[in-house]
Each structure stands twice: as C-alpha cells, then as structure tokens.
Write a structure and sequence with these properties.
Oligomer: single chain
Order of helices and strands: HEHHEHEH
Distance between the termini: 48 Å
Protein name: Ras-related protein Rab-32
Mean pLDDT: 84
Radius of gyration: 21 Å
Organism: Chionoecetes opilio (Atlantic snow crab)
Helix content: 40-55%
Low-confidence stretches: 117-138
Shape: globular
Structural class: alpha/beta
Pfam families: Ras
GO molecular function: GTP binding; GTPase activity
Strand order of the largest sheet: 1-2-3
InterPro entries: P-loop_NTPase, Small_GTPase
Length: 138
C-alpha cells in the first residue's frame, strides 16, 4: 500500500519522537521501505531527511549524541537530520528548506544530464543536426 503513497515522490521526511526511544527503532524500516519502493530517474534514492521531533521535551537515546546521529544518517543514506518541534515550530522551516534544496539540486543535475544528451541532437546555432544514417535503406 505504501507504494501508492510514494508514487512520484522526489523527497521525504522520516520523523521519530525523541521522548520515546522505541519510535527510533522504526526509522530504519521506513528508510528501507522508501529506498525499495521509490527512486529517482537515475536509480538513486530520493533525498530523505530524518526529523527528531519534540526536541523541546527531555530526550532519550541516540539523539543525545549529535556525532552518533550524523554517523547513523550517513551510514543509512539520509541526506541529513534535524532536531525539530512541531509544537514550538523549531527547525521546521530549516529542515524544509534543506530538503527542498536537495530536491532542486537533483532536478538541476537531471536537467543538465538531459541537456547534455540533447546536445548531441542540435548544433551550436540551434539548428537540428541531420540524423545519422543507419544500416537500413528504408
């Protein structure tokens, strides 16, 4: 069922609750699910940002060690992570901007690849290059 929700996704947030360490256990499951069900046109994973929500509350687990969180995200293919609070509006804009920038960078790279492929079809003056002849005489 999740494949329907992921259809045509170009980025994602995975959110866990810093006050309940057991919610962190599901993070890897969600990231794996995303990576197996949706990819970019080049076959790479969509940018995914991990959100450690409720940072305005007392924290449990690995989120208390930013260096370990950085390692965790790097090892599992997250684009980055942010401590957030939806209630207090902490780092919500920053995390969103970060993800949107990753998405736009992917789009830009995809456009540059398409343009380089299209460059083979057009000359510098903008006129179409003649099609190369194939072995077929039709």
């Amino acid at each position: 069922m999740t494949r329907v929700y992921y259809k045509e996704a170009v980025g994602a947030f995975v959110v866990f609750d810093v006050t309940r360490a057991q919610t962190f256990d599901a993070v890897t499951k969600w990231k794996t699910d995303l990576d197996t069900k949706v990819t970019l046109a080049d076959g790479s994973s969509i940018p995914t940002v991990l959100l450690a929500n409720k940072c305005d509350q007392p924290k449990e687990g690995v989120v208390n060690n930013p260096a370990r969180m950085d390692d965790y995200c790097r090892e599992r293919g997250f684009s980055g992570w942010f401590e957030t609070s939806a209630k207090e509006n902490i780092n919500i804009d920053e995390a969103s901007r970060f993800l949107v920038n990753r998405i736009l960078n992917n789009e830009k790279q995809g456009m540059m690849l398409t343009e380089s492929l299209d460059a083979d079809k057009f000359s510098v003056d903008g006129k179409a290059k003649p099609a190369e002849k194939s072995g077929c005489a039709c």
